[in-house]
Write a structure and sequence with these properties.
The chain is an alpha/beta fold. It has helices at 2-5, 10-25, 64-68, 111-121, 144-155, 180-194, 209-221, 254-268, 286-294, 304-309, 313-324; strands spanning 38-40, 43-45, 49-51, 72-78, 91-94, 99-102, 129-133, 161-165, 199-203, 226-229, 247-250, 276-280, 299-302.
Length: 325
């Protein structure tokens, strides 16, 4: 079925994805495969590979992911109130280059729907759950902390970790929240309200080394437990036909994501082991997963592999890991 998907328009394929995912998941047992398990802050990850934020925006496929083979799940980005995608074309794929472009801008059904979806399935979840939180596009940056705090209060008891998303390029002005003062204010308040629930921050691949170091320092000072590196990029490889606005992921993102991981590990230095480092961006093969772990990632996520290789990717990685590691 997946081979047929590439002949569909990107938007239609995106709409059909939940159906394909659910259908495929039914072929597998409920338990995620075990390879290189990890224990972190009293959480048990049966394996190191998870689904990235932005796929299961409304937490509608919670029981499907472990069946497909994920060792953990990230849902969202959720905003306090429902909002539609940005206007115009929001999604495209380059099958040959294995690049994915999106200009979605946190489309989701809002925190009420996610809350009830999580409530319904929270007792049946067998792998750790991260909830990715963001602000509504109509919320000015000076009041953005109110959106994040509302979501923190709402989901802290249901999530195994919260992910602060300040790095999507598709919500106007959102990346400004990565500046020292804004990020310090935001992380301090969210970590305090989240109490014992770990808080991770998802950062942009387009930060300079200096800006990345500053962001890491600010977050570490305020008690953040880890980092997701990285979101999509505004940069474009030569001969890329996608629009200049919007985020690029897939193969072209891999070098930037790898560099951010290595830079973060170096900057954290002796304190590296205190933080969970999650690598995402351009992870398209089992070898890519192994490489990120060897580079120092604790966990790895993928989004584009689901598009280019289909929902069996996670089980394929598990098979490869058991045969080659």
């Amino acid at each position: 079925m997946h081979s047929l998907v590439q002949y569909l328009p990107a938007g239609l394929a995106h709409q059909l994805a939940p159906f394909v995912i659910s259908l495929t998941a039914n072929n597998y047992p409920p338990e995620a495969p075990v390879w290189k398990p990890l224990e972190w802050k009293n959480l048990y990850f049966p394996n190191r590979l998870g689904i990235a934020g932005g796929v299961d925006k409304n937490a509608e496929l919670l029981t499907a992911w472990p069946r497909l083979g994920t060792g953990f799940i990230e849902v969202g980005t959720v905003t306090p109130y429902s909002q539609k995608a940005n206007r115009g074309k929001i999604l495209d794929r380059d099958w040959k280059a294995q690049n994915l472009w999106n200009k979605m801008g946190f489309p989701n059904h809002g925190s009420d729907e996610m809350y009830f979806n999580l409530l319904k399935e929270q007792d049946s979840l067998s792998v750790p759950l991260f909830v990715n939180i963001g602000k509504n596009r109509t919320t000015a940056n000076e009041y953005a902390h109110n959106d994040y705090l509302y979501l923190t209060e709402r989901f802290a008891e249901m999530a195994d970790a919260l992910v602060i998303n300040v790095s999507s390029p598709n919500t106007q002005g959102l990346r400004d929240l990565q500046s020292r003062q804004a990020l310090s204010n935001l992380t301090q308040k969210v970590v305090s309200l989240a109490a014992k629930v770990p808080v991770l921050v998802k950062l942009s691949p387009d930060l300079s080394d200096t800006a990345l170091a500053e962001s890491l320092e600010v977050c570490a000072t305020n008690g953040v437990s880890g980092f997701i590196l990285t979101n999509t990029t505004l940069s474009r490889p030569p001969s890329c036909s996608f629009p200049a606005e919007g985020g690029l992921s897939g193969k072209a993102l891999a070098p930037l994501s790898q560099k951010a991981l290595q830079t973060a590990a170096r900057i954290l230095g002796a304190d590296r082991q205190k933080y969970l480092l999650v690598s995402v961006g351009g992870v398209l093969t089992p070898q890519d997963v192994a490489e990120r772990l060897e580079m120092g990632a604790d966990l790895v996520q993928t989004y584009s592999a689901l598009v280019f290789h289909g929902p069996t990717f996670f089980r394929d990685v598990a098979t490869w890991m058991k045969e080659n590691r």
